[in-house]
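Running this now, will post back.
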Amino acid sequence: MLFLFRIVTKTTIFPIRLVFKIFKYRLISVSKIIIMISGIYSLARYAWQNKEKTSRLNQKFNDGFPQIENFYSQIKNNYTSAEKEKREELSDEFGKIIHLNKSGNANLHSDKEE
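Update: finished.
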């Protein structure tokens, strides 16, 4: 029983001593420590709430999220393929314009009247 008490006290006293050393030598200001602790707390709370929400939604929709993820990935793939096609079309048009400019046959200012 005494051994267990020593383990518990050492594991709880170590972080407390560390915090006091930080305050003693002013390695980090108090406001920064408070901000760090509140940030860690908010991240942990957000992760826990997210875990609960996803488990509830999985129960509600009978694990339909893989279908939604597949649908999203399909939309993303369609978007990237359309974007690649558009880039290829634009690069072909710019290539034609550059070729015409090099050959001297292009009159880019044909719309302007002099």
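The chain has three helices and no strands. More later if anyone needs it.
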